[in-house]
Design brief:
This protein is α+β, with helices and mostly antiparallel strands. Among the domains are: 124 residues, no CATH class; 207 residues, no CATH class. The protein is built from 15 helices and 5 strands. The longest helix has 100 residues.
Length: 491
């Protein structure tokens, strides 16, 4: 329909309606005649247009069927192409998904490969660290090959894994051999520092070594700073013979050290007292001098304090009874019988019974003060030792740390042995400073308490004496006796 409309418009444009010609100079015609001519002309043009339209419709009708057929064919082709497109799209999506899954699978396998590689490398390092020092010579080639395989660009990944897997198989074989015991040749350093060839016998974590000449027999251990196994001999000759027999004949009594060599190491660290003291450095001299002086003074003060006589209750009562009877000679005799500082004080008081109580109290207080000074003598030095020894130990600690830092600047922090002297000086001086200070402090407290107990006994006896004097004044009784004597004489 759209085609017919377009054609009709094209026809009207191509054949416009023309008006009848008007000739100039002709006489005007009537209006009716003009309309008649125009209608005839338009009718003619309409007939022609209708004829053309009919012809065009016939042509369209003839061409419509082939075009419809062609359109149907093209639509069928379009449906087929769309089906192929959808199928191809689904195939591409499926392949893209498979490709993505494959990439993820490859990534997972690469991560597993990296993990296994790191795990095998870690296993190799741990295996090397856990091997007995005697086995390092035996497995050195396989360990070196496995460690260098990862960095060898000439090897493929399969060859690298094969090399590491061979080492794992070798380690499993080693476990089987270690459980049942194995022998192998190697070298070890004897007690004299000579490297000797010989045979190792390994059972579990314990290894025995016998040199080819038979002079070096013992357990193979690792010494600090040495990459060679060292031979530690046995103290007992029977153990040496048994170890040699086990190494040579693979049978016999196995001399087992249950500490796995720690007993030898602990024994090597044992040192004499004088060696321990000399490691403390020059600060140990004043510390030991304080210790010796405080010890001697303690012994002396103990002898002095424990040799003093303690007053008994009976002797004190006898003295007070003599005072109550106003018998001066009996009181002095009873005070002499008491003895010690208390007796000395009571004698001094009894000699002045005829004096006032205040004077007697001052006399006895003077004796107490003199005795206190005598008992407290030399005790301050013990207290000084108790307070000075830790300070000297701290001084030794500071000097030891200074020496350690000096050695650090020279040797660095890698060599521990070079730092041991400064560390020993720093710790040993503190140790001995506390060893001297703590007993000195306790002994000073004990001796001070002992001396204070003596003066307390003197004060107790002095108070009892003064109280008895106040109850039975000796001076008033003496005046009454004199008055009675005078009255008798006058009579």
């Amino acid at each position: 329909m759209k085609t017919l409309n377009c054609f009709f418009i094209f026809f009207l444009v191509s054949f416009p309606v023309s008006s009848p010609p008007v000739f100039a100079g002709e006489p005007p015609k009537t209006t009716e005649e003009s309309f008649r001519k125009t209608a005839a002309t338009m009718q003619q043009q309409l007939d022609e247009s209708l004829a053309a339209l009919s012809a065009l419709r016939e042509q369209i009708a003839r061409e419509k069927i082939p075009l419809s057929r062609k359109l149907s064919d093209l639509e069928g082709e379009l449906v087929r192409v769309r089906g192929e497109y959808q199928q191809t799209s689904r195939l591409l999506d499926s392949r893209a998904l498979d490709l993505s899954n494959l990439r993820n699978e490859i990534k997972i396998r690469q991560e597993e490969e990296t993990y296994l590689s790191n795990l095998l490398s870690e296993y190799i390092r741990n295996l090397e660290s856990r091997l007995h020092i005697a086995e390092l010579q035996r497995y050195e080639e396989a360990l070196t090959k496995a460690k260098l395989a990862f960095d060898n660009s000439n090897l493929s990944k399969q060859e690298i894994f094969q090399t590491q897997a061979d080492l794992i198989v070798m380690s499993l074989d080693r476990l089987d051999e270690a459980l049942g015991g194995t022998r192998f040749t190697g070298t070890a350093v004897d007690i004299g520092g000579l490297v000797k060839n010989g045979t190792f016998a390994l059972v579990g974590p314990v290894a025995l070594f016998r040199s080819d000449d038979g002079k070096s027999v013992g357990t193979a251990e690792q010494r600090l700073g040495s990459l060679e196994p060292s031979v530690l001999g046995f103290q007992n000759s029977g153990d040496s013979d048994a170890a040699a027999h086990v190494v040579t004949d693979s049978r016999g009594y196995f001399p087992l050290d249950p500490t796995l060599g720690n007993a030898h190491k602990i024994e090597a660290t044992n040192e004499a007292l004088w060696e321990h003291i000399t490691k403390g450095g020059p600060v140990m001299i004043p510390i030991l001098a304080l210790a010796a002086t405080a010890f001697l003074l303690t012994i002396y003060k103990c002898i002095v304090l424990f040799s003093l006589r303690k007053p008994s209750q009976d002797t004190i009562k006898s003295f007070l009874h003599a005072i109550a009877r106003h018998n001066k000679h009996a009181a002095i005799s009873a005070a002499d019988a008491i003895g010690g500082p208390v007796g000395k004080m009571l004698v001094a008081g009894a000699e002045h019974l005829q004096e006032r109580c205040e004077l007697i109290e001052e006399i006895m207080y003077e004796t107490v003060q003199a005795t206190r000074l005598k008992l407290q003598s030399l005790l301050p030095f013990i207290a000084i030792s108790a307070s000075s020894a830790p300070l000297l130990g701290l001084l030794g600690t500071v000097t030891g740390i200074i020496n350690t830092f000096k050695l650090l600047t020279v040797f660095g922090s890698g060599d521990v042995k070079s730092l041991s002297s400064g560390i020993s000086e720093a710790l040993i001086t503190t140790e001995f400073g506390l060893i001297v200070a703590i007993p000195s402090l306790l002994l000073h407290a004990f001796l001070s308490r002992k001396a204070r107990s003596v003066t307390d006994q003197m004060q107790k006896a002095a108070v009892a004496f003064i109280n008895q004097m106040n109850k039975t004044p000796f001076r008033a009784a003496h005046e009454d006796v004199r008055r009675d004597t005078v009255m008798i004489d006058e009579e």
